[in-house]
Amino acid sequence: MSVVKKVSAESNTTAPWISASQITPWILAIVFLLILPLIFTSGSALTIMNQMAITIIFALAYNMLLGQGGMLSFGHAVYMGIGGFFCVHLMNMIEYDNLWLPLPFLPLFGGLFGLISAMFIGSFSTSRAGTVFAMISLGVGELIAASSIIVVAFFGGEEGIGGDRTMGPSTFGLDFASQIEVYYLTATWLVISALAMFLFSRTPIGRIANAVRDNEERAEFLGYSQRNVRFISFCASGFFAGIAGGLFAINYEILTEENLNLATSGSILLITFLGGVGFFVGPIIGAIVFTLLQTVLSLYTEIWQLYLGTLFVLTVMFFPFGLTGLIAIHLQPYKLGKISILFRPYLHMVVPAVVCVLSLSSLLEIAFHAKHAAIGEEQMSLFGIGFNSHSFLPWMIVIVLSIGSGWMIRRIAPGLNESWDEANYVEPRV
Amino acid sequence: MSKIKGMILGTIMTGLLGGVAYAADSVKIAFIDPLSGPVATTGTNGLAEWKFAAEKLVNEQGGVLGGRKFEIVAFDNKISPKESLIQLQVAIDQGIRFVAQGNSSGVANALTSAIKKHNKRNPDKRVLFLNYSAVDPALTNDKCNFWHFRFDANADIKMDALTDILAKDDGIKNVYIIGQDYSFGKAVAAAAVRNIGKKMPNAKVVGNELHPIGKVKDFTPYARKIMASKADAVITGNWGSDMVGLGKAIIQAGYKGPIFTYYAASNGITKTFGAEGKGVIRLVAEGAINPPASARTSDYINGFEAKYPDHDISQARIANAAEMLAKAIDKAGSTDVIKVAYALEGMEHNSIWGGKVKMRASDHQAIQNVHIQAHTDENITHALDNSAYGLVKENTVVNAAMDSPTTCKMKRP
Amino acid sequence: MELFFVNILDGLVTGLLLFMLCSGLTLIFSMMGVLNFAHASFYMLGAYFAYKISTYTGFWPGLVIAPVLVGIAGALVERYGLRRVHQYGHVPELIFTFGLALLIEEVVQFFFGKNQMAYDEPHILDFTAFTIAGNAFPAYKVFMIFMAMAVFLVLLYILTRTRVGMIIQAALSYPNTVQNLGHNVPLVFMGVFGVGTALAGLAGVIAGPVLGTFPGMAAVLGSIVFVTIVIGGLGSLWGALVASLLIGWLQTFAASYNIVIGDVLMSIGFSKPVNIDDGAFRDLWTLTVSQIGPILPFLLMVLVLAIRPQGLFGKRET
């Protein structure tokens, strides 16, 4: 758990509950969310942004467990899924049973159902931390995912449960048929839930969750029941996951077995970790990067999962604090006013690093094409350059490029390390 | 600051989503199926068949509307309904109006209801759904809509044809039904029980069970039950590794009778069964490739095998779908989705696999010949999986289930 | 009654196969505290390597070579990957193996394609060993039983009777003390990881022809291996064996008998609702035990953890 410890020490120092410097990023974020659809107008861009927003809420909720509470869950999709399934059922009740419920409030009910199921399961799963909690979450996740196919009445079997979001009473004259209306609804819920989760982490209970994560026994001696603290974190996390489920129901108008299964639970773990567990913004960055990789990269290459797997393994090996951690380690040189020392070595590194990544991936792509493309289809194109994947020259070029750039990186690396140490060096006070 | 950043990002995003530039006047078909992950094998095989059918049967014949070519654009849906809906949106943004999908009835169901809603909400960007493999009967019954066309024979039709053949065999007294526990497996089981009860008064169903999909490691206990039931015939809708696992377990338990399957061929399955499966494995499907219906059929298969040696013609209806879409576009005189849909309704087509295919207007279900084929290494003109084994036609039901009822109430625009 | 005996044998095969996977995993888990999510992927590698080797030389050389290759791959992963990640803590380690599982599956597909592999039993074992009331028992399964038994006995001997075993056992509980005594603990870790993955590879070689060799084979096995070692108790070889057999028989018997949950409910006094088709619990009434067989181990695990968190044979809680 050393990842998490380091950061919590830093966040514990703030004395005022909230300050102006903390409000600014929120206002910037809201403005950013407002103008985003003016830049990306296409339907697919809106769909992808909605997907990102849902994943962000889900990942933030997940990080309430992993980052703040130190609880590793392998079955968190369950709470998002159950919230979502209930929302689709509510949507159908709006359509067929004259239930009066304006659509914008639907995610709240998703949250409540997520909360109820988290209370139920948390009542026995949170009694212990560590491996026992992790394995119970795995077992419960597997049980519910399996029952989703069996219990057709509620989960709809393999086909899932579908609905129509436009059948409710119109709210502010909106019927939510168009993507853009759904976007603003999703964005609103994103801001509300992100803010609520942020504030939760500042409450005493959020702080105690950190304490329990770092040292159960010490927290227990201070008079806090570690079990209750974990239970409350777990329920809160289930609530926000349920909100994400409700938004999923509104966006896709269908929930299926995939919303509950282990693959979804596993990917939210990866997303949160990729972004950075120890930071509030970590899961946000993770969700954005992951969605782009999964949805956009797969348009370009069949072996996108190979890249994804490589990215995860390399991230864990070299940046265990996640992508946000990569940014955060630059705060120290920045505060010391020495960040400029890093500019030159970074600039030197950029070209070989980019060339190395591109040439290695080209090598994979060419090899894949040569091995799996149809007979007679020897032409392929990479980065807009067309060539024959079976001929000698392209192979030669990418191999030379990757070896060359790799050699360059090795040569530059010691210099970069030196500059890094220099930039982080704090002069001893005399 | 954030605005400039946003604009840069915007340009990048638009560039990313815009994808590769396509020939301006081609007719694009979005192929949305799994191309990665554990079940990608049927997806990549289907993609190869679509590409080849578009090339050989449409583009080399002069294209549609006086020279416009078909172009298959692949989208990887990771067999996830959610991803399918995202990719559908990306496809629509790229100006694609025809969507082909086949793997998983769950995905097909998500797509067909999404397309129905999309077409209602966006009349200027309507989309047509060419379902080439998802066989859940509900898609052309309760859940049917004007934009969905199914080119495969659905699970009920296949079972109807299979039991027509079984009813002629007096030796079959005990039938065992086993399948995966989800909508398709249940549909197969229900259809089997219904048809056997109706057509085979002397036979009885000695076992009818479902097992969890993709979770059973060892099928031996199921095979033991089948042996204990003294079954003369086994019927299963299993696919993928569940099919191989079940089939091998049954054979190794000492079973000698026929196993009637929907999907026990290609993608390595034929090769894996090899000699063990001979005389046991049967398959009910449209479009038999052995013996080939004509020289044209043979040429087509040989051409495919030469170009895609790792793949097989395992989903013959893809050729029908490509040809019928081309015909419909020519008949409609445009790629306007409504006109093309009306042209497809009721269309009769001489299939490259022999026989006629008729797209029934009442539910958009293709009516065609359905065959019982045997897994063997004798009289094989076109083998599967680069092995000596393949499928040979044993029996044919002409225009299977032509007059079968449908609960579909088609709403036309 | 004959069928009961056949089921015992079938369950034994499944259980022992599971044990081969779990024995390595439980050692790795208790020593390094890491849930190796890629363990089933090494099983997959074993099957694919053995298939490739068998296309050149037949089955038998693959039985030896493939596990060795997998073991070397595992040792390399430990040396250059896990050891680096180890210092960051358990969660990063776990994510590492998670990513590794993804990566291995993709790399295998990159080289072998996406089709089912026609990996078959050796011809010499392709006959029926004996028949019980019309139920054939293939010779290959007898071979599987003996292989798994041999693995268990060898492991037991090494762990309890040899010097290496003593060091491993000591390093499990007190790595620092063992290090201070002059033993190379990182090397022990690497060795254990290599041997553990090699055992998974061996399981793959043996199970590949029976359970199928295909891209999803690691996913099918999935998390069941963790369930087994958690039920058995971490670090306990005997626990792994007992839990494996328990799960093997549980799954076999669940699949063998069509007990309908509705009947069970009625026999304990519930009455069946009249209009069953509309009720929210309609699926519960028609459910059979064979339908839920594969998820029973998870239920068992949740129960075991709720009652006895250290597992059946575990000595300490983690």
Q: Could you name the ranges of chain A where pLDDT drops below 50 across 5 or more consecutive residues?
A: 1-14
Number of strands of chain A: 4
Largest sheet of chain A: 2 strands, antiparallel
Succession of helices and strands of chain B: HEHEHEHEEHEHEHEHEHEHHHEEEEE
- Overall 3D form of chain A: globular
What is the level 1 CATH name of the largest domain in chain B?
Alpha Beta
Task: Assess the beta-strand content of chain B as a share of residues.
Answer: 15-25%
Gap from first CA to last CA of chain B: 49 Å
* Estimated radius of gyration of chain A: 24 Å
Mean pLDDT of chain B: 90
Task: Name the shape of chain B in a single word.
Answer: globular
Major sheet summary line of chain B: 7 strands, mixed
Global mean pLDDT of chain A: 87
Note the total helix count of chain B: 12
> What radius of gyration of chain B results from the CA coordinates?
22 Å
What is the strand tally of chain B? 15
Strand order of the largest sheet of chain B: 7-6-8-9-10-14-15
Account of the protein in words:
The complex is a heterotrimer of chains A (430), B (413) and C (318). Chain A is mainly α and 430 residues long. Chain A is built from 18 helices and four strands. Chain A folds into two domains: 2-10 and 21-323, no CATH class; 332-423, no CATH class. Residues 1-14 of chain A have low confidence and may be disordered. In chain B, 40% of the residues lie in helices and 19% in strands. Chain B has helices at 2-18, 40-58, 81-93, 105-121, 155-167, 183-199, 220-228, 240-252, 269-277, 295-307, 317-332, 337-344; strands spanning 27-33, 70-76, 98-101, 128-131, 148-150, 174-180, 204-211, 233-236, 259-261, 281-286, 348-350, 356-359, 366-367, 370-376, 390-397. In chain B, helix 3 (81-93) packs across helix 4 (105-121) and helix 5 (155-167) runs parallel beside helix 6 (183-199). The longest helix of chain B has 19 residues, at 40-58. Chain B is globular and about 60 Å long. Chain C is mainly alpha-helical and 318 residues long. The longest helix of chain C is centred in the N-terminal third of the chain and has 31 residues, at 2-32. Chains A and B meet through helix 2, helix 3, helix 6 and helix 13 of A and helix 1, helix 2, helix 3, helix 4 and helix 6 of B.
